[in-house]
Write a structure and sequence with these properties.
By secondary structure, this protein is α/β, with parallel strands linked by helices. The chain has two domains: 144 residues, 3-Layer(aba) Sandwich (Isopropylmalate Dehydrogenase), CATH 3.40.718; 95 residues, no CATH class. Helix content is 42%, strand content 16%. It is built from eight helices and eight strands, in the order H-E-E-E-H-E-H-E-H-E-H-E-E-H-H-H. It has a four-stranded parallel beta sheet with strand order 1-6-4-5, with helices on both faces. The chain has a two-stranded antiparallel sheet with strand order 2-3. Strands 7-8 form a two-stranded antiparallel ribbon. Strand 7 and strand 8 form a beta hairpin.
């Protein structure tokens, strides 16, 4: 009931966004702002992806989808961008190597619209850095707040980094009003993806679901619980 969308728009939604984090326009070179003369300026960013970067993230998305409902939506802008044309070609090739997974392609503007109108159609979304940055914030609208959503930054080697998708919110630091659910669900992701404990992850997720179903809400969701009170309710639900 915290979602601004009608209940039928968000009923049954369970989606995972797999975002490439180390490439794309955020890290492309050259990147600069310069004066061009006559009092004019220009800014330059570079968007590029290699086949290896795309294949690695699509492979992960397919592996995760195989443990879920078996559907991957690869999001790009292949009707305009050369980097997206490569992305789509490599994604199709990698997807064909996972026969138990159905991979579809969708342009980013179409995906953004469908997230609002038919979000339950999505299972796993895989996309580049900038598109993923935008779509994950849009997905937060489905549940009513950024404070609810967890994230994991995973690599081929070493442990992952697990954290809520929202920022540090220094403007409310120390006030005890932040929603702890994103952080709590990040622990569930840690258990599932790094410690391979799906049972532990489900216990935490179930506790959060029960608290929300019982009406527990922090201020960002329209309630009056503080950070500690919400955390205590989840711990009680865990037993």
């Amino acid at each position: 009931d915290a979602s601004p969308l009608r209940p039928e728009r968000v009923r049954g939604v369970d989606l995972l966004v797999v975002r490439e984090l180390t490439g794309g326009i955020y890290f492309g070179e050259p990147k600069f702002v310069e004066q061009t003369g006559g009092g004019r300026w220009r800014g330059v960013d570079t968007l590029e992806y290699s086949d290896g970067e795309v294949r690695r993230i699509v492979r992960l998305a397919c592996e995760l989808a195989a443990e879920r409902r078996g559907r991957v939506t690869s999001v790009d802008k292949a009707n305009v961008l050369a980097s997206s044309q490569l992305w789509r070609r490599v994604a199709a090739d990698e997807g064909a190597k996972h026969p138990g997974v159905a991979l579809e392609h969708r342009l980013v503007d179409s995906a953004a619209m469908r997230l609002v109108t038919h979000a339950s159609d999505f299972d796993v979304i895989v996309t580049g850095n900038m598109f993923g940055d935008i779509l994950t914030d849009e997905a937060a609208v489905l549940v009513g707040s950024l404070g609810v959503l967890p994230s994991a930054s995973l690599g081929d080697a070493g442990p992952g980094l697990f954290e809520p998708i929202h920022g540090s919110a220094p403007d409310i630091a120390g006030e005890g009003v932040a929603n702890p659910i994103g952080a709590i669900l990040s622990v569930a992701m840690l258990l599932r993806h790094s410690l391979k404990s799906d049972r532990g992850a489900r216990l935490i997720e179930g506790a959060v679901e029960r608290v929300l179903a019982a009406g527990g809400r922090t201020a960002d969701l329209g309630g009056d619980l503080g950070t500690e009170a919400m955390t205590e309710r989840v711990l009680e639900a865990l037993g």
